[in-house]
Amino acid sequence: MLKQTEGSRAVAEAVAMCRPQVICAYPITPQTHIVEALSAMVKTGDLEAEFLNVESEFAAMSVAIGASAAGARAYTATASQGLLFMSEAVYNAAGLGLPIVMTVANRAIGAPINIWNDHSDSMSQRDAGWLQLFAETNQEALDLHIQAFRIAEELSIPVMVCMDGFLLTHASERVDIPDPGQVDAFLPRYDPRQVLDPDDPVSIGAMVGPEAFTEVRYLAYERMRQSLGVIEAAAAGFAEQFGRDSGGLVRPYRTEDAEIIVVALGSVLGTVKDTVDELRAGGRKIGVLGITTFRPFPADAVREALGGARHVVVLERALAPGSGGIVTSDVRTALVGRSTHISTVIAGLGGRAVTRKSLCALLQAEDLQPLTFLDLDTGLVDRELARMRTARRSGPSPENMLRDLGITASGIG
Amino acid sequence: MFQVRFHGRGGQGVVTAAELLASAAFSEGRHAQAFPSFGSERMGAPVMSFCRIDDKPIRTHEPVTEPDALIIQDATLLHQADLFAGLGREGYMLINSARGFGELGLGDFVTDFHRDRLLVVPASSLALTHLGRPLPGAALLGGFAALTWAVSLDAVLAAISEKFAGPVAEGNARAARAAFAFVRDEREALTDA
Prior knowledge:
The complex is a heterodimer of chains A (413) and B (193). Chain A has 413 residues and is an alpha/beta fold.
């Protein structure tokens, strides 16, 4: 059924249709609306599940681990510092092979504290052993959650569905909410590979020493590799059941004869597509490759999709200080042996709007540097560097820079 | 694509108004997108929200920087430097105020635009009368329908009845109708003049 609704609400409805048995939540912006909506559904009886208000994100993931190990379909959601706080348990969920599904409403990480969107939070957990799927639209966010439960449970690997905080979670858009019967037909009952059952006791989470730790880790690598096929099959099955394309590994747009291809993840893809249409109208041979599955990284699919491009521009909403682009490293590995010119563009950090105007100017430039910060206010940076040079006790830089701008509270855009 | 930017203060329903407009457009079979520009969420702090309406799917997720229309929910924001940023000469603007443009200090500003596209409507007063609370969102959308015809009054009323229930829905609907009539009459007066 077509509906105009907030992204968080759409995701909550999708999660509810997946019939999770345990939902644990600790509120953090911009994820809160999702679990609020789910808690309301549990309270009214529309959703039959245990809803646990926990005392922290660490507890949220720990409860999800316990529930999943006991054979329940478990769900939670978080963002930003919340994801960092649960990080130890995030690794454990993957190491234990528990198919938890978690929404990450992508948000920057402090300090300085910032509630707005970028991808720093989920990128920080990219090596935790979870699958990471990135939604481009609210429709895809909704669809990916339905696919996530199927993929996670088939593989016994947890899945993180990443959706841009505010830009998607708080945006009201048109979405097609599926019929619960369709979801039931697509998503089989959870049949755990391992379960804590008093009648058939097992140990889960035993210590493993040097004699087998490498092999256990190798198994995780191997199963991640296998998951690529499962993700593709889930997307194909989804298209068959629901009649629309969602999910999968990568999503090319106007790349066939493209000399320049922009690689990006998440909601910025919409703005990039509009930019590509504008530049194509001006004769520039440019396309976009959306990466839906970031973990495991679909290197073969990326290499194939980037085909004959002479220049690949990786647009990143996170930064690895001391290194540069995070996604770029994976793209570079996928293209090893080719002479493709690769540039990194860091954009949209902490809620900075990524505009078509800036993208157009950037993508028309012929001399793109290896690393560019989109719309960087270099004067602001230079003045703070000067202050640091001239005074030992130059004080806290973020506050200095805000004072320099003449504002004490941040605006967006 | 028709792009609208709302300016108001936290607690005035700025975000809800943008969502209602998106729902109204959706009910007419169009594509719409509404989203807030959250700052620190405090009562009384300046807040912006955005709405886009189009006949095809809307892909962009950037803030509205070149609005076709502005809806100003709180006239005390009028002299913020960037309130009118990006509004073109063909643009529309609806301000919630019981005072005229001259009194608001905008007498010269409005001469640069189509005079019948910039109007003032006493939305808070209408809301107080019909809803019992000075929440101007629904009334402004009723006025907006009469000003721009980007959505119909019926669509605005449908969005109100979907979002609210009981006396709140009825009060908001009455305020929207009253503002629609007010703006329609003002426009006719300007056209005749």
